[in-house]
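In the current project phase, we have settled on a layout for protein records. A sample record is reproduced below.
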Amino acid sequence: MSQAMKKMVAQHMECDEQLNKVETALQRNELAAAERNFCLFSEQLNQHFMLEEERLFPAFEKATGMRDGPTTVMRAEHIDIRALRDELATALQAGEVTVALAVIDTLNVLIQQHNVKEENILYPMCGGSVPDLMTALGFGGGCGGTCSCAAT
């Protein structure tokens, strides 16, 4: 897997970890902590989806000419994930712990299924078809992540 795709997978893991922290805080009935972790989760999710929707997907579509392929499916799933995220926000704001935990269960399943498709299908396709992927994603220079320019 390319360095760029490894970074994308790492973002998946960071989002998962933050959502798990929300769940743990709710299970402990620590609403303030759950809300703080939810804000971090939501920010990470937004940044990741923006990176995919504004950079990765267009670069893949341009490189392959596939406009009605896997990126269409991923965009639709992003809509579903955002809707559940918003439902979770509403439950947290209302202090409805049981509802929030149920939404997290559903959200976790949907996110895991989504990530498996991206990591096992879309990302390998991107790695094999998008030229200069590190630069396309804004992760650094054209070296592919093997030199110091990728840190910028």
Notes: The helical segments are 3-27, 31-64, 70-93, 97-129, 133-136.
